[in-house]
Amino acid sequence: MSTRQIDLGLLLVDHQLLDSEDRRCGNVDELTLEGGPGESLEVVAILSGPGTWRRRAGWIGRLAAWIGGGATVRIPWEDVDEVASHVKLRKRAETLGLGRGDDRLRPFIEKIPGADR
Amino acid sequence: MTPYEVYFYSSGGVEEQWGPKDLGLNKANAMIGYGLGGFLSFTLMIVGGSLFLDKGIEPEFLGSITLGAEVPLGQIGLLLALVGILFAVGGAAIDTMFSGAYNLAQFLGWEWGRYRHPTGAPRFTLTWIVLLILALAAVMTGVDPVQLTEYAVIFSAVALPLTYVPILLVANDRAYMREYVNGRLANSLGLIYLVVIVIISVTAIPLMILTNVGQN
Questions:
Q1: Nearest to B123 among A16, A102, A116 (CB)
Q2: Is B8 exposed, middle or buried (0-12, 13-18, 19+ CB in 10 A)?
Q3: CB under 8 A, 24+ apart: contacts of A55-62
Q4: How do the residues of chain A divide into helix, strand and coil, expressed in percent and rounded to 5?
Q5: I need a surface site. Which of A22, B52, B122, B215 has the fewest CB within 10 A?
Q6: How many Å separate Cα A28 from the centre of its chain?
Q7: What is the pLDDT of residue B146?
């Protein structure tokens, strides 16, 4: 990935995650930054999922996280392919543990006649 | 420009992969659509006024307006008007359901869109089905649908600037729009319109309370 300066809060957080096959599979809900005193701060992972909402949005966030099941998925920065208006990942959503809500619901939706059209 | 229309239309644009080549068609759509919509609203009001007003009738049901076609044109007119209402209401129902589903799915980062087919976007599909059932439940409570619509329109008027301002900003963003960025004329008209909708938005609720939702 080429190096350029971006505002992480504006151009990374809350953006759409796309897996290697362009499947929409969640948002960038939080970032994990690492670096000690005097060292440069580095983004090491993206966190995604309802579990992150607890820290972000007070009691509404805690309620939403509880409704959403409270899971958090950690995506190592090495798996990030490209940062554009979306964040493109190098692996499939299933491999990373993303988009599980859709996968769990799919068997039921598939029972609707014509659901693949 | 009401929020739900913006979600529906812009998401549809993504689904159908619109690009610069579709600008002309969309401009024509907007001009003809808004023009025709305004014209039809006026004709409905005029027809309604000339048909009902001098007889002291206050139509309370959507179906009453079909009499505006039935009186001059007979049965054929009535049938055409009813079929027209079926398409208009059906289209609006699809609009609103999908708009709600687009909104939720995009906020939460779920897969969305009709073009993914229901199996490709299960949570999106479930959302619009649930919204359809909720809407049906709301109608079945016996609430007056016309009055419910009036309240919905008032609240969407309040929210108008929230969708209008971002669109105006994006239209001025050269990084997004390149050579299609807004010119001086478009921006002048856009700003005049902004003033109008801010006034509407700020006065909508006070007017609703003062006029008792247009009842006095």
A1: A102
A2: buried
A3: A55/A30, A56/A29, A56/A30
A4: 35, 25, 40
A5: B215
A6: 4
A7: 82
Does B173 contact chain A (CB < 8 Å)? no
Q: Under a CB-based contact definition with an 8 Å cutoff, are residues A107 and A39 in contact?
A: no
Asked if the model's pLDDT at residue A3 lies above 70, the reply is: no
Contacts of A102 in chain B (CB under 8 A): 110-111, 121-123
Residue for token digits 């309604």? B48
Report the mean per-residue pLDDT for chain A. Answer: 92
pLDDT at A2 over 60: no
For residue A35, give both structure tokens: 């670096």
Residues B38-95 have pLDDT tens digits of 999 999 899 989 988 888 888 878 888 898 889 889 999 999 999 999 999 999 999 9
Please name the residue ranges forming H helices in B141-183: 145-171, 174-177
**Alpha carbon distances (Å) from B213 to A10, B126, B146, B149, B156:** 41, 35, 12, 11, 15
Q: Could you tell me the pTM of the whole model?
A: 0.88
Q: Which residues of chain B have pLDDT under 70?
A: 216
CB B99 within 8 A of CB B124: no
pLDDT for A1 beyond 60: no
- The backbone torsions φ and ψ at residue A28, rounded to the nearest 5 degrees and listed phi first, read -75, 100
Distance CA A29, CA A10 (A): 12
pLDDT value at residue B46: 92
Set of chain B residues whose Cβ sits within 8 Å of the Cβ of A99: 110-111
How distant, in Å, are the alpha carbons of A2, A17, A44, A93 from that of A75?
20, 10, 9, 10
Q: What is the pLDDT of residue B91?
A: 94
Contact B109 A117 (CB under 8 A): no
Taking the Cβ of residue A112 and every Cβ of chain B, the question of whether any pair is shorter than 8 Å is answered with yes
Q: How far apart are CA A29 and CA A50, in angstroms?
A: 8
Q: For residue B216, what pLDDT is reported?
A: 58
A46: amino acid identity, one letter: I
